[in-house]
Amino acid sequence: MTAIISISNLSKTYANGYQALKNVSLDIQSGEILALLGPNGAGKTTLISIVCGIVNATGGKVTVAGRDIVQDYRLTRSLIGLVPQELTLGAFDRVWNTLCFSRGLFGKKPDRAYLEQVLRDLSLWDKKDSMLMALSGGMKRRVLIGKALAHEPRILFLDEPTAGVDVELRKDMWALVRQLQASGVTIILTTHYIEEAEAIADRVGVINHGELLLVDDKQALMHKLGKRQLLIEIETPLAEMPAALADRPLELSADGRTLIYTYDPHRPQTGIDELLQALRDAGLTIKDVLSTKTSLEEIFVNLVQAKP
């Protein structure tokens, strides 16, 4: 893949001295879906705003399609669509006019067929003549996406796009995201719904306190930082760990009914067979066995907590 966005040593310090970004470097590949995860105030929106030309960086450099975002502002901005967190829409505008106006701002010729398809994909075609003030919050969110797509951008930034959106609409949005990726659009999203990032992203980046802690392929990240646990429920509760099992990586649940074995599933020998035999040798009767794995959310929380 070719990097469509290159970010090098990007930093941002506001007038009050707050350092929102600290030497962030990142290459975003053409056609990928990159999820940026981080708590509130981590620097996600500041990063997006700089790339989109809304906020000026204090230091560093950003290029879009090989062009500097400051020197070639008009060209680079025309390649980008942005869906902000806030519902920034005029109350008395109509849906169709909003998309037409946004398309015209970027010097694009009118294309009714394209805009109609965008609205149909967003389940908004029947609302095309409605005033924005009459729409629900979820519909306004979809209008923002349509507005961002009106000028046919190659890159789409989605800043918390499903905030306040119901589950059904959220699924529709992610279906649209996949459709856009299939058409060649590069998508960068920030989200608090980590399970969605796990389901849809190709790569995941974690930001905290203005620092990019890591960026990795989603599956590789879960491979490297994920873990498996074997939950072994026993017939008779234990007051403490038996001496015969004391040297094994086992934890005893608070109620004494479950032994928890943590292991790396990628090692040639997991030690599970030996462990189960050791439990039998210790006179324990196994009632049930359940295998669990680390979720992307757990990895995210551990990364953020590890670096204050």
Q: Gyration radius, to the nearest Å? A: 25 Å
Structural category is alpha/beta
What is the architecture of the largest domain at the second tier of CATH?
3-Layer(aba) Sandwich
- The helix count comes to 10
Helix content: 25-40%
Judging from the principal axes of the Cα atoms, what is the shape? elongated
CATH superfamily of the largest domain, by name, is P-loop containing nucleotide triphosphate hydrolases
- Beta content comes to 25-35%
Q: Just give the CATH class of the largest domain.
A: Alpha Beta
State mean pLDDT (0 to 100 scale).
85
Number of beta strands: 14
- Largest sheet, spatial ordering of strands: 6-7-8-3-9-10
Parts with pLDDT < 50 across at least 5 consecutive residues: none
Looking at the structure, the CATH topology of the largest domain is: Rossmann fold
* Count of separate structural domains: 2
Largest sheet: 6 strands, mixed
